[in-house]
Specification:
heterodimer, A: alpha/beta, UDP-N-acetylmuramoyl-L-alanine:D-glutamate ligase, Protein-Tyrosine Phosphatase, Chain A, 2 domains, 9-stranded mixed β-sheet, B: alpha/beta, Rossmann fold, 6-stranded mixed β-sheet, 4-stranded mixed β-sheet, 6 helices
């Protein structure tokens, strides 16, 4: 009976997928949603590849997933993934349905799946990854995720005991998840010339989880990420895969792997992406790939650039930077990036919640967790909070100490290009939420056109 | 003027640190004392002009109860004698009689007659519109817990939820103790209440960035009063 119900759900899901395709729709999760509705334990009954790698965490999971998939594909493997789909249970089911035969048998031998951390209780009881990377855990949308301790507790409760964890030892929250599971740690030494983090507002772990004393950081990279210890003996775990140094000129990274030193191609020069690459290298090495095979695969891949775009026009550099709305850490990382860049800067902030602005009113509490203070520098010539929450943005900037004459609130994206003081700017940063990508691309085109007009170049 | 911030290393979730950053702009001459978990609170030997505590994780609530336990009589005395408190989010639950959790009942400090109950499977998110006296109050709820209270409420509910789903009031207002489940930058987004609080603290200063704060408040209030917009 169970099998019949499963097969009916599978066939209906496949039919839906076909219909969506005929209608020209992508259908990233709908067929999976229907399948689970018809057969609640669908994920436990559908055929699974011999090896399943899951990737979860607050930030970086899409990048890590893409890296692992690209690296495996560069090594000649066919990989089942949900990279074009959703990362909740329905998205995972959709990816498996797409690959399944008519009897539900899985065709591919390996899967790399991005898994939403909140979906743990809906996925892991049925579908057990062999390896699970947890990139990091930070506070995220308060509505969905509450706080990082809550997410850590969900993961600890639902991650299958058989799953081997791949953890960032520089994150004391995610590295403590599911303590009974087999695990390997990756981490990063302080790099040459790397500065200590400025005082971030958000530091999700400050006191020792054992005794409550203040944690002592040997080095704090950003927020709570770094190497810490406590008088009581509690400390960050020794990493199995440790990035020792990075050569940004030649784009190489030295990694100590269980005591043996290796040298790999570095595919991005941002610290966040070094962690992502380390996670991917750790997965491949744990899968049994040789350092030579990993290096060869690394030579063939590029980091996805959809979240970062930069172009120079008439002596001005325009940068589009994704800064996920409702995610204070992602926005703070973007502000920190801008702070470190040289030149006179104009920054446009386009990350009001696209859904809330139509139907309700956005809970803007999260912007008080964002380090707007990083924008308050001599080099900032103008900041443009944009959208229905522009006045909230202006107030936040005033509290951060940004002088009022540098703040130009505008009510919608269409007004951004016209509001920029082009004469004063060397750099123009357009920060946008993931759901505003297309709008931001339009703003970018208008800005480029305006630069041409005002510069006569 | 002494403003004591209790346990900011733990009680800092959901943008609530914005409250004290804003108050520092409003009252630049005031002394803001941050009391950490391993220190004796300043209120033990002094009467601050304001004692503030923000929301925290559920595990941190237990730690805070343990640390404040030796001072519960002093807290009760300060509330009874009119000391000003502002507790946001789930902070006031630690002063209650108990918190019912899935793992069992946690004894609170017993200073307030409230009993909280956690439901970790269901997070309640909504917006709030209410009145405190003749002032409009707006705010955000995002919580796992609700409470039964025998204390007077802080704000009358116009739209959204109170201290529990069927309650007509939100939070607790006992003498000059203000406890609210609203979280985030409560003071930043409620200029009238913040002006009132500053007056209660004995200052005649105007709130910082008043024009922008009031314009942002007016925009939010219009949305919250718009029946076509849902608040949950």
């Amino acid at each position: 009976m169970k099998k019949i119900r499963f097969l009916i759900a599978l066939w209906i899901a496949k039919l839906i997928k076909l219909l969506l395709k005929l209608l020209g729709r992508q259908g990233t999760y709908f067929s999976g949603k229907v399948a689970i509705k018809l057969c609640p334990d669908f994920l436990g009954l559908i055929g699974r590849p011999g090896t399943v790698i899951g990737v979860t965490g607050t930030n970086g999971k899409t990048t890590v997933c893409n890296m692992i998939t690209d690296l495996l594909e560069a090594g000649g493997m066919e990989v089942l993934s949900n990279r074009l789909g959703s990362n909740i249970n329905a998205g995972v089911a959709t990816a498996l349905i797409d690959d399944a035969s008519i009897t539900g048998r899985c065709k591919k031998r390996i899967a790399v799946l991005e898994i939403d951390e909140r979906s743990a209780r809906l996925i892991y009881p049925y579908f057990k990854p062999d390896y699970l990377v947890i990139t990091n855990l930070f506070r995220d949308s308060m509505r969905r995720n509450a706080h990082s301790e809550f997410i850590a507790s969900i993961l600890t409760e639902y991650i299958p005991k058989s799953t081997k964890l791949i953890l960032n030892t520089d994150d004391l929250i995610s590295s403590a998840v599911a303590p009974e599971n087999e695990r390997v740690y990756f981490g990063m030494e302080r790099l040459e010339g790397e500065e200590e983090a400025p005082k971030n507002i958000v530091r999700d772990i400050v006191v020792c989880p054992v005794c409550g004393r203040a944690l002592q950081y040997d080095f704090r990279r950003y927020h709570h990420i770094g190497r810490a210890r406590c008088e009581c003996g509690f400390a960050s775990k020794a990493p199995d895969y440790l990035a020792l140094s990075a050569d940004f000129e030649n784009m190489r990274i030295k990694v100590s792997e269980k005591g043996q030193e290796r040298d790999y191609r570095l595919i991005s020069d941002t610290v966040f992406n070094i962690y992502n690459e380390l996670a991917a290298i750790t997965v491949l090495r744990e899968l049994g790939k040789t350092p030579e095979e990993v290096e060869e695969a690394l030579q063939r891949i590029e980091v996805v650039k959809s979240r970062f775009w930069e172009e120079e026009k008439c002596g001005k550099t325009v940068t589009m930077l994704m800064a996920k709305g409702l995610n204070a850490v992602a926005c703070s990382r973007a502000f920190d990036y801008i702070r470190r860049e040289q030149g006179k800067k104009v920054v446009a902030l386009m990350y009001d919640d696209i859904f809330d602005e139509k139907e309700t009113s956005e809970n803007i509490a999260w912007i008080y967790d964002v380090d707007y203070e990083f924008l308050n520098t001599e080099e900032l010539v103008q900041v443009i909070p944009c959208g229905v929450r522009a006045l909230d943005g202006k107030l936040r900037l005033l509290i951060a100490g940004v002088p009022e004459d540098k703040i130009t609130p505008v009510s919608c994206e269409a007004e951004v290009a016209g509001a920029i003081r082009y004469g004063e700017a060397d750099r123009i940063f357009l920060l946008y939420d993931v759901y505003r990508h297309n709008i931001a691309v339009k703003v970018r085109a208008e800005v480029m056109k305006k630069i041409e007009e005002v510069s006569s170049c | 003027m002494l403003i004591e911030i209790l346990y900011p290393e733990l009680c800092n979730l959901f943008g609530d640190t914005g409250n004290m950053r804003y108050l520092k702009r409003c009252l630049p001459e005031a002394e803001f004392a941050e009391t950490s978990l391993n220190e004796e609170p300043r209120f033990v030997s002094a009467v601050p002009s304001l004692i503030y505590m923000g929301p925290m994780t559920e595990r941190a609530q237990e730690r805070v109860i343990e640390r404040l336990s030796p001072y519960k009589e002093r807290i009760a005395e300060l509330i009874d004698t009119g000391c000003i408190f502002l507790f946001t989010g789930n902070a006031m639950e630690v002063l209650g009689e108990s918190i019912e959790a899935p793992e069992g009942k946690i004894e609170g400090l017993g200073v307030l007659k409230i009993r909280a109950k956690r439901d970790m499977k269901n997070r309640h998110n909504s917006l709030f519109l209410g009145n405190f006296g003749d002032m409009d109050i707006v705010g955000f709820h995002s919580r796992f817990s609700t409470a039964e209270s025998e204390e007077p409420g802080f704000a009358a509910v116009l739209r959204g939820s109170g201290i529990n789903k069927s309650a007509k009031t939100e939070g607790v207002h006992k003498n000059n103790f203000f406890g609210t489940n609203l979280l985030g930058p409560v003071l930043v987004i409620n200029p009238d209440f913040t002006q009132y609080l500053i007056g209660l603290m004995g200052s005649d200063k105007r709130i910082a960035f008043e024009e922008t704060a009031r314009a942002a408040f007016a925009a939010r209030l219009k949305e919250f009063k718009d029946e076509r917009r849902h608040l949950d």
